[in-house]
Structures are given as C-alpha cells and as structure tokens.
Amino acid sequence: MNSVLMVFIDGVGIGKKDYEYNPFFKLGFKTFENIFKQIPHLQIPVLQTDSIYLKPVDANLSVDGLPQSGTGQVSIFCGVNAAKLVGNHFGPFPHSKTIDVLRDKNIFREFLNRGKKVFFANAYPKIFFDYLKSGKTRLSATSLSCRLTNIRLNTATDVRKAKALTAEITNERWNKKLHYNIPVISARAAARRLLRISSNYHFTLYEFFLTDHLGHGRIKDEFQNVHKNLDEFLFELLTKFNKEKMDIIICSDHGNYEDLSVKGHTRNPALFIAAGKNAKQIADSVNDLTQIKSAIIKNCM
Q1: What global pTM score does this model have?
Q2: How would you list the strands of the sheet with 270-275, edge to edge?
Q3: Other beta carbons within 10 Å of 103
Q4: Which residue among 3, 133, 142, 147 is least crowded, i.e. fewest CB within 10 A of its CB?
Q5: Would the pLDDT of 221 be above 90?
C-alpha cells in the first residue's frame, strides 16, 4: 500500500537568521542541521537532499493582515482560499462561512470518495469528549473535519493500546496536566508508532499545536522540552520512513514560532517539507497553502 502521512504543525514559519528570537537558531534543530546541513531562513528558504524537499509556502493568500489558524487550516485541508472566502484572515477556529467547505472538500473526504482508507492519528482526553457532550461546537479544523466526515476520534484507550498519539507526542503533559497514568514514550518511539499506524492507511493526519502556544508566549516553562521533542519526532520520521511506500508532508498554517520577538502571528512564509518518492512533484506543485491538498491528491493517488 502506498501511504501518505501529513504532519500538520501549527504556527511555524521560515524566519530570519536570528540567534536571539528564532528558536531554530537559538536552540538548534537537528532535523534541519543533520538532514539539510543548515537551518532554513528568509535568505535561504529552499533546501533539498535525498528525496526530501523543504520550501517556503505563502500563507498570506493575497489578504491583508496576519494569517490565522482557522482560515489557514481550511485552506490547507480543503484546497480553497478560505481567507478570501471569509473576507479576512480568521481564527483560531474555522469561520461559519467555511463549514460547508470543510464538510464537502476536506482531504479525508477526498480520499474516502476514492475508496481509500484514512486515519486521524490524534487522541483526545475525556475533557474534550465532555465538551462535545455539552453541545459546544467550537472545534479546530482537524477535529471538525473528522466530525463532519464521520471519522472516529481516538481516546486515551487508543493511546494505551499504541493505536494513536497524544497531540504533545510523549504523553507526559496528559499525565501532568490531565492526571492520566499513561506510559510516557520517547519522541522517537512516538514517531515510529506513527509510521507503523500510517502504513495501514492511504492517508493519515497527525496534528501538533504546541509550537503555536509557545509562539504566543504560553507554557514557557516547557519551551526547551517541547522544542526538543518536536525535533526528535520529525528527525525520526524523516530518517526512518519507507521512501518507496510512503510520502510524508510536513506543513504549517502561518508564521509565529520562528519569531519570538512578537507574541502574535507573522506574515513570514509557512514551513513546508515533502519527503518520499513523489516529494519533488509535490514540492514543485505547492507555492501557497491552497495548493497542498491538490498536490497530494494529484501525485499520491
């Protein structure tokens, strides 16, 4: 089976070569340094090596203002310019004008319509399902896409059975913040789990959003640990996947994390990486957020 694994990372752009405010330079990032031999920045935003291509992707979409998660993520997962549809950048949740688009055009549905198997690898804690039962409906683009497409959302039980991942990779925050008692795993072990899971599906999506929290100045006490875990996770994915049977797409919705001199989003290009046998064709097909979905459908079906 040929598989596509999309790893969506919230709020990561390609920024300046800045050792004070860009964490990739300040703390280092071996995913970039070991694979590409350098860290991308605005002067050198395009890197490639051995079927892995990194490039900047426009997140502004010809709309004034700072890009936001709601419209940015709908643009990625549905292949439409959600910011233009709404009339402005909007977030963090999808705008009401984009709900029908999410229902009809999300990438899960595109694969399902073609008879393919899909999976959303994130698990949610009990507090999230209690939120759903309360009747509240403010959901991220990923979880709302699943709800609108009748895709099951994973639980803590799925994490314990190694059938899903928590959104923070290692399970440590679930134990500390939500009082679970789930075995903590290394970021590398989590990456291997995700590779194993995704090999059983034509399309798998995993979402990581703590980068956006850090960019906004939240959870400062966990900064270095989150940064290191993400680095270990991505490095393991990109060095251990089967290049002949899987394509990996790593993408983001807007800039934020790459410039800690501000606590808001940036108009920097979003980070995009394609890896695998179709990586060059995919990377060549993507210049802005709206082209990611079509590049996957066109080159990976």
Answers
A1: 0.97
A2: 47-49, 52-57, 270-275, 246-251, 3-9, 203-208, 118-120
A3: 15
A4: 133
A5: no
